[in-house]
Amino acid sequence: MIRAQERGLESGRVASWLRDAIIDGIRQPGSRLIERDLAGEFGVSRVPVRDALKVLEAEGLVELRPRTWAVVRKFTLEDLVDLDEVREVLEPMAFRLAAERHRPDGLERLRSVLQEAHECGDRADAIAARRAAADFHEVVVALAENGLLADLMKSIRSRLRWSLVLHDDLAQVTDEHVALFEAVRDRDGERAGALAHAHVESTRRGRLSHATALRDAAGILAE
């Protein structure tokens, strides 16, 4: 029993580190994740590494390969379109319910995460700012107090966090979060839902702008 618990803790630690490394862009799409190498890096056996990779596969962040390795998933345009379509349904619902149901302590948590995003932006810490932006959405889901909605959002949590890496204008994201916070604070469910829908569309445009900038930069380097 104790050994099983230790293995669970080890696999959880490995999964957490790899998840952050993938979402933060440290482990690039297409890069290999080799069990033997990861076990040596973390000072664990290959078993918890294997378990961690299975967790990340279920979250949609890695793809397992035969034998003892995996690759960081390369998200296609279709993958991102699918994510946006799901967000367009679930996120307006989450913000509307959060506006209608939030409690004072929950609203204070949301205010705190928003403030953290501002502070990270001021010190140009893009990784921390993206994490805070993702935390903002997760606190909203908690404020909605709908268990099924929470389960559905949890199933796309890692993909949503990863998609935030594809945005350059984090100040705009924070400004939109301010407007969303104010709608939730004012218990204006209709306004919160409409702003959430617009926010999904805005982040889609931001992602396209990011992709265009990368493509143009690659073209310049190739010349």
Task: Please describe what this structure looks like.
By secondary structure, this protein is mainly alpha-helical. It has helices at 2-23, 35-42, 46-58, 77-101, 104-122, 126-144, 147-155, 157-163, 170-185, 189-222, and strands spanning 32-34, 62-64, 69-72. α4 packs across α6 (126-144) and α9 (170-185) packs antiparallel against α10 (189-222). The longest helix has 34 residues, at 189-222. It is globular. The N and C termini lie far apart (61 Å). The model is unreliable at 218-223 (pLDDT under 50).
Topology:
Blueprint: H1 2-23, E1 32-34, H2 35-42, H3 46-58, E2 62-64, E3 69-72, H4 77-101, H5 104-122, H6 126-144, H7 147-155, H8 157-163, H9 170-185, H10 189-222
Antiparallel strand pairs: 1-3, 2-3
Low-confidence stretches: 218-223
- Spatial order of strands in the largest sheet: 1-3-2
**Number of helical elements:** 10
Strand content: under 5%
- The rounded Rg comes to 19 Å
Q: Level of helix content?
A: over 70%
Q: Which structural category do the helix and sheet elements fall into?
A: mainly alpha
List SSEs in N-to-C order: HEHHEEHHHHHHH
The general outline is globular
Straight-line N-to-C gap = 61 Å
